[in-house]
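Record 1 of the preview.
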Amino acid sequence: MNTQDFLPENDIDLQLAKQLNSILESQGELSVIKDSLINSLIIFKNEELNSIKSLEVSTSEIWKSIDERTKPSKKAKITSLPQRRTNVWIWATAATVLIAAFLGMFWFTNLDQPKLVAQAGTKIDYVSLEDGSQITLRPHSSLFEILLSEKERTYKLEGEGFFEIAKDVDRPFTVQVAKGKITVLGTQFNVSTWGNETSVFLEEGSIRLDDENNNSAILNPGEKATITDSDIFKTSDANIKEFKDWLSNVIVVNRTPLDKVIVEIEHHFGITINLDQIDNKSELISGTIPLENLTTTLSDLEVILEGAFRKVNSDTFLFIPLN
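->
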């Protein structure tokens, strides 16, 4: 039986239920419905979204908050509905459940998102954290805040950065990377995550590396390590110039495979370089390549590789050997 058979067209509940059904089917905006209940729900959602960034609550606290907000008032008067309006009540209840799910989706999705602290564009960016730590971000790199509390400081790095961490024995500083994490108390180190691997160089202090396979390694000053899919490889004779060179806008290479140098240049300038016409992409090269601007960098590479770069589009270059 259709609801119109026993309810007048101007019935308030019927009209609201129809509007909710229409909006949900068309995936439109709830704000077009002029109703005090809907307006209250939208205001509540916006208030919660605005405050989410400053929240640091546990799962139990979240459920406690939801329980308190949805608990009926002690003064509430519950009146049974007439049997003839059962269909409308079911319809409206279903729509309300969908609204609650809609609001909940915003709540929990946003709680899981890391907070972007800084994002370097085409130039080096300098970041000062609230604890006094200083981070230098390489171009096209990003730093995210995962968790700050009385017991820990956790961030995530995408790209490359040089970290000068303020010492705090009660709050270890952790950097999450693609294949593991780095934990320190107070130190200076460089981390790069481009090229499908994570490389760490320690200048001073002490850090611990942990990968996804429960492998770990302790680095001492002057040592470097690479986190791969299977293990952590540690080297004790690292050249500091090769890890901090980008801070001076150069690349220092010492018998470094060509393909690795190209990956670093691609990340630094946010471009793609095609070397398909080169037979030996693992050729070892040495020298210093400037990074002040892309034109100069590519010109120097043309001399080293004995060829020329052809611009395919705004951010893609093809290398053509002369012989």
